[in-house]
Amino acid sequence: MNANILIVDDDADMANLINLYLTKEGWNGHIADNGATAVELVRTGSYDLVLMDVMMPGMDGFEALRVIRTFSKVPVILLTARGGIMDRINGFNRGTDDYVTKPYEPEELILRIKALLRRTAPRGELISGDLEVNAEAYTVRLSGKPIEMTKKEIELLALLMSYDRVFTREELYKKVWGADAGEGGRTVDVHVNRIREKLGEEYGARIRTVWNVGYKFEH
């Protein structure tokens, strides 16, 4: 799956440079220049990881992280020149997943992002009753029998099974197809219908439609 990463930094040159590194890895970077905007983007958008500078005017990174943690578990890496032990403790107490001190090598940042994405990615083996999905081997089995599905169908099903929450069509399209929705909502609907047909009446019904919102998998 393509990763959607939010870069939060009031230094436009630094944010654009980080975005360049992300693009080279095939990830989709999105930029916010202050903490308050970052909070609203996380609240309304769909991101796999947040890179956030600490020292910003107005709402700094620590405060933005505190607010984000009241409604989201999105992985966060704090980026800061303040590398003292109390600053690190403050960051981890607020809920950061990692803490990178400036200056840093781009290669180190990329490795830390990859490690965090691996830790927070949907687990390889997902089981719900007689339904088994392996998101790494791209296999689906129902009552022990293999079910033929496309790569995107398996990724979509695995994503839905991995979280006990409702996803909007826009979120699903962004996470699985790696792009903003546009007409993607219809693509999600088509794939969900195909998955339901292949799983049959009992397990297809576990992908519940939440009207005017999106979809949720009920185990």
Structural class: alpha/beta
Estimate the strand proportion. 15-25%
Biggest sheet character? 5 strands, parallel
Q: Write out the strand line-up for the largest beta sheet, numbering strands in chain order.
A: 2-1-3-4-5
Shape: elongated
Query: What is the gyration radius calculated from CA atoms?
Result: 19 Å
- The helical percent reads 40-55%
- Regions with pLDDT < 50 over 5+ consecutive residues? none
Mean pLDDT: 89
* First-to-last CA distance: 23 Å
H and E order: EHEHEHEHEHEEEEHEHHEE
Number of strands: 12
Per DSSP, the total helix count is 8
What can be said about this structure in brief?
The protein is of the alpha/beta class. It has helices spanning 12-24, 35-44, 61-68, 85-94, 106-120, 151-162, 169-177, 184-204, and strands at residues 4-8, 28-32, 49-53, 76-80, 98-101, 125-128, 131-134, 139-142, 145-146, 167-168, 207-210, 214-217. The chain has a five-stranded parallel β-sheet with strand order 2-1-3-4-5, with helices on both faces.
